[in-house]
């Protein structure tokens, strides 16, 4: 397929670009600056938040699919305000990219989402599936982020003439330049007690995205996670051992309360099922748990 990739420079962008090219797809990268496209791709210069400029740039370009991987997250968000730009990309940016998809004749549209659309905090012992409620508020200050994810999916699923697919990613790890690795090595990453998270290695997330592009059903969402949720303590202990760093210090959860978003992520319980993605996409993680994924990390 001819694919327009928005977000080629993000955490998943590099692995996804390589995976798309390896699968034989032609990739055009959306970039805000000339010369910003990865090696092996064509470039389309435009800004997803500048509707007029984006549509003008898209005119005359033909693609079969658009893949929306844009976020504004350069590091882990600590407070709610740190999500504002990404929320805008999931609402206004999605609307503009859908309009550009129509200009370019694309019939498929994949969008990134996150497992936090199921809610923030303790989601219980049962693994959430795609049949569970997604995008519903009731979580106080977290609601703008949840609403943005709901709006993102609503637009993608309800645009006429486009087969829209949403990828509800677990937390990424394994990205090049991951700042958490440097913090672990320096002993600057305290770990609160409690908290269970579903993760996915960025290479596995990229492979799942290509599988969804090729085999996903329009109007469907897919959880993209590995096979085993893990406590933050076990996760960072394993990372420290792999990097030859001291075991991260423990801190009580209340220490994080001035950073409500980080507190919600690090102390909540997020168990996510990947069964649908495995069954329908023919995908399975090459790193089925954090153990295999961390063992493959390169030292920074």
- The CATH superfamily name is NAD(P)-binding Rossmann-like Domain
Question: What number is the mean pLDDT?
Answer: 95
- Element order: H for helix, E for strand: EHEEHEHEHEEHEEEHEEHEHHH
Helix content: 25-40%
The total of beta strands comes to 13
The value of Rg in angstroms is 19 Å
CATH class: Alpha Beta
**What general outline do the C-alpha atoms trace?**
globular
Defining key terms:
alpha/beta; single chain; 300 residues; seven-stranded parallel β-sheet; 10 helices; two-stranded parallel sheet; Rossmann fold
Concise overview:
The protein has a single domain (2-295), classed as NAD(P)-binding Rossmann-like Domain (Rossmann fold, 3-Layer(aba) Sandwich). It contains 10 helices and 13 strands. The chain has helices at residues 13-22, 51-58, 84-104, 143-157, 179-186, 202-215, 232-243, 260-267, 275-281, 290-295; strands at residues 2-6, 26-31, 42-45, 65-68, 108-114, 163-169, 171-173, 191-192, 196-197, 199-201, 220-224, 230-231, 250-251.
Describe the protein's topology.
Blueprint: E1 2-6, H1 13-22, E2 26-31, E3 42-45, H2 51-58, E4 65-68, H3 84-104, E5 108-114, H4 143-157, E6 163-169, E7 171-173, H5 179-186, E8 191-192, E9 196-197, E10 199-201, H6 202-215, E11 220-224, E12 230-231, H7 232-243, E13 250-251, H8 260-267, H9 275-281, H10 290-295
Parallel strand pairs: 1-2, 1-4, 2-3, 4-5, 5-6, 6-11, 7-10, 8-13
Antiparallel strand pairs: 9-12
Structure description:
With 300 residues, this protein is of the alpha/beta class. The chain has a single domain, classed as NAD(P)-binding Rossmann-like Domain (Rossmann fold), CATH 3.40.50.720. It contains 10 helices and 13 strands. Helix 1 crosses helix 6, helix 2 runs parallel beside helix 3 and helix 3 packs parallel to helix 4. It is globular.
């Amino acid at each position: 397929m001819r694919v327009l990739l928005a977000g080629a420079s993000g955490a998943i962008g590099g692995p996804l670009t390589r995976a798309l090219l390896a699968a034989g797809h032609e990739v055009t990268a959306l970039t805000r600056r000339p010369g910003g496209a990865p090696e092996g791709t064509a470039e389309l210069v435009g800004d997803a938040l500048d509707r007029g400029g984006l549509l003008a740039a898209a005119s005359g370009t033909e693609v079969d699919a658009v893949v929306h991987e844009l976020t504004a997250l350069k590091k882990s968000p600590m407070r709610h305000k740190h999500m504002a730009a990404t929320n805008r990309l999931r609402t206004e940016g999605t609307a503009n990219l859908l309009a550009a998809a129509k200009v370019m004749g694309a019939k498929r549209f994949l969008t990134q989402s996150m497992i936090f659309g199921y809610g923030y905090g303790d989601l219980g012992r049962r693994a959430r599936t795609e049949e569970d409620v997604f995008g519903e508020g009731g979580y106080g200050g977290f609601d703008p982020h949840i609403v943005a994810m709901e709006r993102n999916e609503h637009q993608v699923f309800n645009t006429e003439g486009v087969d829209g697919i949403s990828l509800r990613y677990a937390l990424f790890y394994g990205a090049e330049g991951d700042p958490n690795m440097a913090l672990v090595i320096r002993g600057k990453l305290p770990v609160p007690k409690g908290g269970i998270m579903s993760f996915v290695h960025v290479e596995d997330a990229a492979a799942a995205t290509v599988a969804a592009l090729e085999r996903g059903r329009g109007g469907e969402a897919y959880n993209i996670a590995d096979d085993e949720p893990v406590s933050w303590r076990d996760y960072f202990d394993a990372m420290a051992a792999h990097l030859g760093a001291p075991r991260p210090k423990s801190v009580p959860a209340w220490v994080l309360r001035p950073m409500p978003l980080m507190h919600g992520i690090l102390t909540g319980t997020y168990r996510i099922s990947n069964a649908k993605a495995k069954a329908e996409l023919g995908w399975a993680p090459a790193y089925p748990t954090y153990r295999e994924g961390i063992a493959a990390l390169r030292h920074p």
